[in-house]
Structure formats: structure tokens, C-alpha cells
Amino acid sequence: MLKAVIFDMDGVLINTEPLHFEVWKRVFQNRGIEVSYEVYKDCIGSTAKYLLELIRKNYGVDFGDDDDIRREAAQMKESIVKERGFPEISGVKEMLERLDSAGFQMAVASSSAEKYIQEAMKTLGIESFFRVLCSGENVKNPKPAPDVFLKAASEMNLRPEECLVIEDSTNGCLAAKNAGMKCIGFRNPDSGNQDLSTAALTIDKWEELDDELIGRLLHMDE
């Protein structure tokens, strides 16, 4: 029986994927590189470290593990969020309330920085729903490796098979599969054309995760 739901954050709980592409595009423009979306999209759901590796492979420029790039991106994102606010996704709070009423434990397992995850959840007023907040920056391997999902399950004292993941990206769905967890794919058009085929099912809006579907999830078979 499933006991917990582990959420990705960007593109699932907040609609930040377009913001991330805007930030990174500007960061690399400042360094003379015009990053195309076709290259960038392969890092959606993963970490800045993975993006830097994609830049090396596709543009032949090796920034190593450049703290200045990360710092500039973080400052730029912080400035944009301060100006515009966190981009919300309709129906998130109501969906969390339904899962909470059904007795699910909940966690966030995101590739974003821990401070950013905490700030986003607090600002949107949904932090109280989550028992655990995990950042991919605090595990060895980024998505599509399973590390961050396994860490979230461990911190809830649950086995992987007791956890359901909700993801909007190819990397995230693969990470859930690699963790031995069932997955629901959330189709967010702003996350690009992601391959969610490894998910057990997909939904297009949070209203679809209604009481009937939640009841089915509670008894989802292996």
C-alpha cells in the first residue's frame, strides 16, 4: 500500500521551468554562448551541474564546477522572483489538501537548492503539508539517478515501494523508476515536450487527482 507522495517542485508545484530557461540563457549569453532550448531541455528536472556538462558537450566550453555561474544564476532568479513572485500552478493547494485528508505523508524532492525550495513552499503557504524537503544538491547523483527520491523516502522511514512520485520531466520519471517507485506524470506544457512514458499514468491538471483517483492510489498494486 502506498503511504507517501513525493513531489518534484519545478513544473509540478510551481511553474518555474520557463523562468529557469530565461535565467540560464541570460547567464550564458553573458559568457558569449547562445544556448538553444533543444540543448537546455535535456537538463529539465536535473541540476546545474548536469547543465554545465551539457554545455561542455554541446558548445565545447568547460566551466568546470563554476561557483560564479551558480551564484549569478541564483541572484538573477532571486531578483526575478522578487519582482514577479513565484509562478503558481492552479489547483495545487486544493490537491495537497485532498492527499492530506486521505492520510498520505508528503515530501518534496527537487533538483533546486534547499534554500529556494524552503522559500517557495513558505511563500506559497504550503510548507505545512510536507514532512520532508530534499534538494538534489545534497545527494551524490542528480536525476535521472534515484538518489534524491531515495533520500526523501529514507527521511520518512519508508520503503521505496511505499512511495509515489509526481514528476513533469523525463529525468524525473526515470529517477522514480530507478528508485523503484510508482510515478504519475504531470503534463505541464511549459516544461516542454517531456517523455513521461515511464510513469504509471499521466494527468494534465491537478483537478484530475480527485478523491476517486486518490482512493485508487492508496491501493495501487506493484
The CATH topology of the largest domain is given as Rossmann fold
Number of helices, where a helix is a run of at least 4 consecutive DSSP H or I residues: 9
**SSE topology string:** EHHHHHEHEHEHEEH
In CATH, what is the class of the largest domain? Alpha Beta
Low-confidence stretches: none
Please bin the fraction of helical residues.
40-55%
- Class by alpha and beta content: alpha/beta
Shape: globular
Radius of gyration over all CA atoms, rounded: 17 Å
Classified in CATH, the superfamily of the largest domain is HAD superfamily/HAD-like
Largest sheet: 6 strands, parallel
Counted beta strands:
6
Tally of separate domains: 2
Mean pLDDT: 92
C-alpha end-to-end distance = 9 Å
Overall description:
It is globular, with a radius of gyration of 17 Å. The chain has a six-stranded parallel sheet with strand order 3-2-1-4-5-6, sandwiched between helices. It has two domains: 4-15 and 88-218, Rossmann fold; 17-84. With 222 residues, the protein is α/β, with parallel strands linked by helices. It starts with a strand and ends with a helix. It has nine helices and six strands; from the N terminus they run E-H-H-H-H-H-E-H-E-H-E-H-E-E-H. The longest helix is centred in the middle third of the chain and has 18 residues, at 67-84. The model has no long low-confidence stretch (mean pLDDT 92). Helix 8 links the parallel strand 4 (163-167) and strand 5.
